[in-house]
């Protein structure tokens, strides 16, 4: 068969476009885990993820109850719904874990992240960086003749968008805290 006949017989889709209709979709989930504030707990939680090949996209941890010696670990991870259920079940079996909440499925939540951006540049690039920072409500927390350090709080998507716009203007360094999240409402 000639190449022309083969070409005419093919559909407009390639084999890469074929999707298994039974395949589970990979989703991003934000988990809030209340744990004892003691040495080694964070290592055990991270060990669960690394030991099973689960990826952590964002991780924050801080003490939230000084008298009760409790910390809150907020983890953003990706996986199929069955993998996310596995992660939650395995987290719940770790002894110093008191609660595991999947903020993604439990209802509306608020997610914020703090980021610092170092941008170097002169002339028009410097002016454009300041203009964009104002639009994104980023604060200048340090300034020299060669650079700015901007501070911004927002959703991870907002942080990503600002970083992409700053790259051509001289973005040289980014520091991010990771996601902090709380469910909305009274409960």
Task: Name the descriptors.
Alpha-Beta Plaits; 4-stranded antiparallel beta sheet; 2 domains; 187 residues; acetolactate synthase regulator activity; elongated; 5-stranded antiparallel beta sheet; alpha+beta
Protein described:
Pfam families: ACT_AHAS_ss (PF22629), ALS_ss_C (PF10369). Its EC number is 2.2.1.6. It is an enzyme of class 2 (transferase). This protein is an alpha+beta fold and 187 residues long. The protein has 2 domains: 27-102, Alpha-Beta Plaits (2-Layer Sandwich); 109-183, Alpha-Beta Plaits. Helix content is 28%, strand content 38%. The protein contains 5 helices and 9 strands. The protein has helices at 3-9, 41-51, 81-92, 124-135, 156-166; strands at residues 27-36, 56-65, 70-79, 97-102, 109-120, 139-143, 147-154, 171-176, 180-183. Strands 5, 6, 7, 8 and 9 form a 5-stranded antiparallel beta sheet that branches. A 4-stranded antiparallel beta sheet has the order 2-3-1-4. Strand 6 and strand 7 form a beta hairpin. The chain is elongated, with a radius of gyration of 22 Å. Residues 1-16 have low confidence and may be disordered.
Query: What is the element string, with H for helices and E for strands?
Result: HEHEEHEEHEEHEE
Radius of gyration: 22 Å
- Fourth CATH level, the homologous superfamily of the largest domain: ACT domain
Question: What is the CA-CA span between the terminal residues?
Answer: 68 Å
Mean pLDDT: 89
User: How much helical structure, as a percent, in the residues?
Assistant: 25-40%
Which CATH class of the largest domain applies here? Alpha Beta
Structural class: alpha+beta
Number of helices: 5
Poorly predicted regions are: 1-16
What is the 3D form?
elongated
Largest sheet: 5 strands, antiparallel
GO molecular function: acetolactate synthase activity; acetolactate synthase regulator activity
Domain ACT: 30-105
Keywords: Amino-acid biosynthesis, Branched-chain amino acid biosynthesis, Transferase
Subunit structure: Dimer of large and small chains.
């Amino acid at each position: 068969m000639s190449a022309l006949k083969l070409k005419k017989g093919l559909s407009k889709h390639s084999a890469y476009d074929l999707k298994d209709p039974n395949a589970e979709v990979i989703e991003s989930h934000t988990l809030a885990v209340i744990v004892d504030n003691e040495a080694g707990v964070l290592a055990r939680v991270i060990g669960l993820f690394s030991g099973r090949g689960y990826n952590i996209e964002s991780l924050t941890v801080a003490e939230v109850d000084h008298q009760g010696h409790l910390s809150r670990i907020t983890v953003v991870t990706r996986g199929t719904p069955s993998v996310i259920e596995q992660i939650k079940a395995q987290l719940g079996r770790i002894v110093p874990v008191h609660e595991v909440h999947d903020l993604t499925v439990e209802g509306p939540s608020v997610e914020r992240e703090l980021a610092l951006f170092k941008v170097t540049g002169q002339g028009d690039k410097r002016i454009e960086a300041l203009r964009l920072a104002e639009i994104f409500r980023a604060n200048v927390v340090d300034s020299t003749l060669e650079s700015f350090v901007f501070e911004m709080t927002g959703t991870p998507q907002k942080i990503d968008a600002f970083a992409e716009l700053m790259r051509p203007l001289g973005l040289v360094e980014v520091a991010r805290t990771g996601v902090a999240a709380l469910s909305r409402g009274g409960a």
